[in-house]
Amino acid sequence: MQAAALSPRDPRDLVGRWALARRVADRVAGRQGTVSGLLTVSADGAGLRWDERGTLRWAGVERPVTRTYLLRERADGWWVDFPDGRPFHPWRPGAPVTHPCRADVYSGLVRVDGDRIRTVWDVRGPAKDQRLVTRLYRDPTAPFGEPVSGGPSGWRRPGG
Known about the structure:
This protein has 160 residues and is an all-beta fold. The protein has strands at 16-26, 31-44, 47-58, 61-74, 77-81, 87-90, 97-101, 104-113, 116-125, 128-138. 18% of the residues are buried.
């Protein structure tokens, strides 16, 4: 049975649980790490809540990590906000987005393809040069922290 196609423009289609795999590259330090875990997108008042929970593996150390965003519909479309209400970026899958953060600039791209989401963020600043690549796969049965593994070209859903 094939899943229904998602509308990349309407984030309400993302409600559910997603297996999460992220590669983190610090190009200044020459280090790489990973995050594996679970994303839960849920209804939250007039919008959505995006909650990530997982395990960061960095420089031989493992530690729990979390990230939360709020998705809110505005007159000019959907926006991704920080939990305190500050805007992060417009929800525009397939179109580049930018977020200035003090001396750093976050340049990103979100792609939604069926039950798969891919985000790429390049973070540049006076002391930063990082790339974060995240792959998400809809999987309502994925237990917390289930790793999503793959070959050198990226991650893929187990068995898929």
